[in-house]
From TrEMBL:
Protein name per its UniProtKB record: Potassium transporter KefB
Highest taxon of the lineage: Bacteria
Transmembrane segments: 20-38, 50-70, 82-104
Keyword terms: Membrane, Transmembrane, Transmembrane helix
Length: 110
């Protein structure tokens, strides 16, 4: 066996793509909730929608990065791939939930 046969192939995908996908999903989720909210409470600031529209996609991007970082586990195949996918999706949903709570804090989350 030569040294090259013992080496694993490194992934060539970049981190930017899963982060953009995660941020896009998060943007559409929070936009759905904000459109359903209407004008909101008159006691809230005039541009109360800006905070969640910025914070939730950032959290979604972090969730996408978390999912990407589990790529080596998913590449192992078998039950490890299933475990990596499940942990990645649950981690993304958890990070998205935390970002939604932080984004809507003081307005819709009270």
């Amino acid at each position: 066996m030569t040294q090259n046969e013992n080496l694993r192939k490194q992934g060539t995908s970049t981190l930017i793509k899963p982060m953009l996908i995660g941020a896009g999903i998060a943007f559409f989720v929070i936009a759905y909730f904000l459109i359903g909210a209407g004008k909101g409470n008159p006691a809230w600031p005039a541009y109360w929608q800006v905070k969640p529209l910025l914070m939730v996609p950032v959290a979604g991007a972090m969730g996408g990065a978390f999912y990407h970082l589990l790529g080596n586990l998913r590449a192992m195949g078998g039950w490890k791939a299933v475990l990596g996918t499940v942990i990645g999706i649950l981690g993304y949903v958890f990070i998205l939930w935390i970002g939604t709570v932080l984004g809507l804090n003081g307005t819709m989350w009270d």
